[in-house]
Amino acid sequence: MSQEESTDWEKRWQEGNTQWDAGKPSPALTALFENEETRSLIPEHGQGLVPGCGSGYDVVFLANEKRHVTGMDLSKTCVDLLVKNHPNATANNYDFMCADFYKFDAPNGGYDLAYDYTFLCAMPLNLRPNWASRYSEIIKKDGVLITLMYPIDEHEGGPPFAVNEQL
């Protein structure tokens, strides 16, 4: 099963079915930067990736003059909206691409930082080993993966699909 088969993200974006959109960067992400100890663990420069970036709030938050961040989404409608809503993205050191996380070409050398906010829980259980393998391929040896494991429960169906310590 491919990511495309698991959920029709294009249809959701076309219908405006984006109830996950909070209108701001993830509170978990901003909290990491508010704490000096955790902020020091995050690479200040290099290449960053936010797969399943939605409306791009986390991409904008993470980008700085030393760190270029790419937001990725599988939905062309989503990426078209991102490009429209962020006309100065390049000048602010970020961009957006429409791509399949499992198949796109990562930059030479890989990413220094990847931020996975609820991207894992969008994956059905059978895709999770591929998720882990793919991150190991695209993140530099000394790179950092920040991920929020949500929702930690045993509910049926999704997305979001249930996440627990073993899965």
Describe this structure in a few short sentences.
By secondary structure, the protein is α/β, with parallel strands linked by helices. Helix content is 29%, strand content 21%.
Describe the overall structure.
By secondary structure, this protein is an alpha/beta fold. 29% of the residues lie in helices and 21% in strands. It has seven helices and five strands. The protein has helices at residues 3-6, 9-14, 27-34, 36-39, 57-62, 76-85, 128-138; strands spanning 46-51, 67-73, 94-98, 111-117, 139-148. Strands 3-2-1-4-5 form a five-stranded parallel beta sheet. Strand 2, helix 6 (76-85) and strand 3 form a beta-alpha-beta unit. The longest helix is centred in the C-terminal third of the chain and has 11 residues, at 128-138. The two termini are 18 Å apart. The model is unreliable at 1-5 (pLDDT under 50). One of its GO terms (molecular function) is S-adenosylmethionine-dependent methyltransferase activity. Residues 1-26 are annotated as: Disordered. It comes from Thamnidium elegans. Keywords: Methyltransferase, Phosphoprotein, S-adenosyl-L-methionine, Transferase. This is Thiol methyltransferase 1.
Structural class: alpha/beta
Q: What share of residues are in beta strands?
A: 15-25%
Average of per-residue pLDDT values: 85
Helix and strand element order: HHHHEHEHEEHE
Helix content: 25-40%
Biggest sheet strand order reads: 3-2-1-4-5
Report the total helices: 7
Low-confidence stretches: 1-5
**So what's the overall shape?**
globular
Termini separation comes to 18 Å
Rg on CA atoms, Å? 15 Å
How many distinct beta strands? 5
Instruction: Give a short account of the largest sheet.
Output: 5 strands, parallel
